[in-house]
Write a structure and sequence with these properties.
heterodimer, A: 367 residues, alpha/beta, five-stranded parallel beta sheet, 12 strands, 40% helix, B: 350 residues, 13 helices, 13 strands, elongated
Chain lengths: 367, 350
């Protein structure tokens, strides 16, 4: 935890797009060059060349902070040298690939956390990111592309950005660039064309990104008092992650406050079987990472405990799935939903469905 | 989600014809910006030059009168088809372009009203003519020229130019590219609108693509909310919430009811009343058949039309629907695989 800073916090600007090769880094470096020309004290904190000639040329004459090397399992990995940037203390710093996960052994596990440190130190940061790395879009991206994006950035992090810019490009142009070997080396390029870079996949991701970018601008505009209060019921089952993402997303769009609750059949979490406890803790952690306030309540009847909490806390919407946690097996499947519906007739109840992969995008068309 | 490959001959023929039409028609690419000065023209002209490098025959059909040195440098590398002067105004020389018949024409400024006596009243109509004759067009436009968005845009910019372009023309573009750039906060709304217009065009592209490849039941990423209406439901709060949610998500709102025979006069008028509310708030209204299993009719419709959220009232747990397959709310939740179901509180006695 950082000490509260008295100095001004740095400004964050994010170049957004929906695929590698869209030109985010290029656009960012163009701006760096422009600012440098105007005399700004600006450095490149991290740059990923990907062997792209045009992009590399754009770094000419720029001050690039050397990366640091971290040993992990006998291999050397290069990461951004956040401490070196802090020592150099520029006015502005450009950092490529915001969602990157650092190798174990680095001070912070995520590059976006490194960026937060720079911002705290009063350094303005510009960075790049594809919107499929946004945590709340994880299920949608999987539905579209069949790919589970592992390196995610919580939505609240992007919401802190002072400026977002969409770098748009048509899938056709992107595929052309890929074919010409601008984006990746030839072998990687042909694999990419077979998988992620199919035109229909890119088109769907682009639509998702455009809508999300519009939403990111929208949230920066209005500052209404939240009228809705959303309560998410989490369990130890894997659907909890999807439910949390969906609840968070709806809360963001409605500008609602958001809580997550686990109803424990035992007074102490430590009394639960280890696997259950671990799952629950993982889900609670995930909720906290999404900036959702979490509570653990003790009760034998999940529905009653949940609805009672909702009534006492002026909840307007309850989010739950059809699964109900391994610990309430006594009641047959689905009755948690039925019970909640019966008990909470004065509250909106949303039963969130498990998302299915849209096979049409990746499987059928491949044939 | 199941994907059916439909191969009925009628449909196949239709597709072949559609493809033929598409092949003969030129392709339209639009660069869309939220204001002037964001770099649309430069991007457009650079794209034309790239295409020429790839071996296409590219000419310029119109440029903006006031331009920067950067634009002038780009334009100077082109073959330019001079515009006509009609009543002292520049008008694209369509006849000459059609005779010259290049593969691609670059036309800066899509929104332009021609003076009386011109071949076409509006520039977008001229572009349509070029496309029909098989010439591809690259053009650019500012958001506030889009007819359907003018009220909203004028409220922000205070400007309402007389020239307009119908949104439909943009939606039918083969390609659109948003030229975005940071701006002062007062213009954020315009940027947002531009991104959403682009998203719609992209969704349209996606649908065309999937349609052409016999794939249905796959939708873009827009939220679509379906409100299930019954005569006895307290529909107003559900519809209003549906409206608010659809607006926040920039999504669509649909209201549907499953037709019932033998409605009592009271139910008949209650239903009319509910449908009137749905119309009033601007929902698309659908009447579904499937009296024997209304829950299934509703969910089937939802699945076919890419609905992401179904809104229903608690009151469905009682009353008419109940007599068919048990509790309809439970049944909808059971059937609605892949779709969220939100159940709304109802006035007691409703």
């Amino acid at each position: 935890v950082k000490e509260p800073q008295t100095q001004r916090r740095g400004r964050l600007k994010v170049f957004l797009s929906y695929a590698a090769g869209a030109g985010k880094t290029f656009r960012m470096l163009e701006e760096v060059q422009e600012l440098k020309k105007q005399g700004a004290d600006i450095v490149v904190g991290y740059f990923e060349p990907h062997g792209r000639k045009d992009t590399i040329e754009k770094t000419e004459g720029l001050e690039i902070i050397p990366r640091r090397t971290i040993e992990y399992r006998g291999c050397a990995f290069e990461e951004m040298d956040t401490e070196a940037i802090l020592r150099r203390a520029p006015k502005i710093c450009a950092v490529d690939e915001f969602p990157h996960t650092n190798v174990p052994g680095a001070e912070r596990s995520k590059r976006w956390e490194d960026v937060m440190v720079l911002l705290d130190a009063g350094i303005d940061v510009m960075t790049t990111m594809n919107l499929q790395h946004l945590e709340s879009l994880n299920d949608e991206v999987w539905q579209i592309s069949g790919i589970r994006v592992r390196e995610t950035v919580p939505d609240w992090v992007i919401k802190q950005a002072d400026e977002v810019v969409m770098v748009d490009v048509t899938p056709e142009a992107l595929i052309n660039r890929l074919r010409r070997g601008v984006v990746y080396a030839p072998d990687k390029a042909s694999r990419a064309l077979e998988n992620f870079f199919k035109e229909q996949t890119l088109t769907a991701l682009r639509e998702l990104a455009l809508r999300q970018a519009a939403h990111e601008l929208d949230v920066r505009l209005k500052d209404e008092r939240p009228a809705d209060r959303i309560l998410i019921h989490i369990t130890d089952e894997p659907t909890a992650a999807m439910l949390l993402r969906r609840g968070r997303r709806v809360a963001d769009y409605l500008r609602a406050e958001c809580f997550a609750i686990y109803v424990s059949p035992r007074p102490e979490l430590s009394d639960l079987p280890q696997s259950t406890r671990e799952s629950v803790e993982r889900h609670l952690n995930f909720a906290r990472n999404l900036h959702i306030e979490t509570r653990i309540l003790h009760g034998q009847n999940a529905a009653e405990t949940l609805v009672d909490f909702a009534h006492r806390h002026q909840i307007t919407q309850i989010f739950l799935t059809r699964s109900h946690g391994t610990h309430f097996k006594v009641v047959p499947a689905r009755t948690l939903v039925s019970q909640v519906l019966r008990l909470a007739q004065d509250i909106q109840v949303t039963v969130v469905a498990e998302r299915k992969k849209q096979t049409g995008f990746s499987d059928v068309l491949a044939g | 989600m199941d994907v059916e490959l439909r191969r009925d001959p009628e449909r196949l023929l239709e597709q072949i014809e559609e493809e033929e039409r598409r092949k003969k028609r030129g392709r339209l690419k639009i660069f869309l910006g939220y204001a002037s000065g964001v770099g649309k023209s430069a991007k457009m002209l650079a794209e034309g030059l790239r295409r020429r490098e790839r071996g296409e025959d590219v000419v310029v059909g119109a440029i903006q009168p006031k331009s920067s040195p950067e634009i002038e440098r780009l334009v100077s590398q082109y073959e330019i088809i001079p515009t006509l002067k009609i009543r002292d105004r520049d008008v694209i020389d369509i006849e000459r372009l059609l005779r010259r018949h290049p593969q691609v024409v670059v036309i800066d400024g899509l929104a332009y009203t021609n003076p009386p006596g011109s071949r076409q009243a509006e520039r977008w109509q001229e572009i349509e003519e070029l496309l029909r004759s098989g010439i591809s067009v690259i053009t650019s436009v500012n958001l506030y020229y889009i007819r359907e968005l003018q009220d909203e845009a004028a409220a922000i910019t205070g400007k309402r130019p007389p020239e307009t372009v119908p949104l439909e023309f943009l939606k039918n573009a083969d390609d659109i590219e948003v030229v975005d750039a940071p701006a002062q906060e007062s213009l954020s709304k315009l940027r947002e609108m531009a991104l959403l217009v682009a998203a719609e065009v992209v969704e349209n592209e996606l649908r065309c693509y999937l349609h052409a490849h016999c794939i249905e039941e796959i939708w873009g990423t827009q939220e679509r909310i379906l409100v299930g209406i019954t005569p006895r439901s307290d529909a107003r709060p559900i519809l209003e919430s549906g409206r608010r949610n659809a607006d926040r998500f920039h999504g669509e709102l649909v209201a549907a009811y499953v037709r019932q025979s033998n409605l009592s006069p009271e139910d008949e008028s209650a239903l009319e009343n509910n449908l009137a509310i749905a119309r009033e708030i601007g929902a698309t209204i659908k009447v579904l058949e499937g009296e024997r299993d209304p829950a299934k009719a509703l969910v089937t419709f939802a699945r076919e039309t890419g609905i992401t959220q179904i809104f229903i009232g608690h009151s469905m747990r009682k009353g008419w629907w109940q007599q068919f397959r048990g509790n309809p709310v439970d049944r909808i939740i059971d059937l609605a695989e892949g779709i969220d179901v939100r159940v709304f509180p109802q006035r007691t006695g409703a």
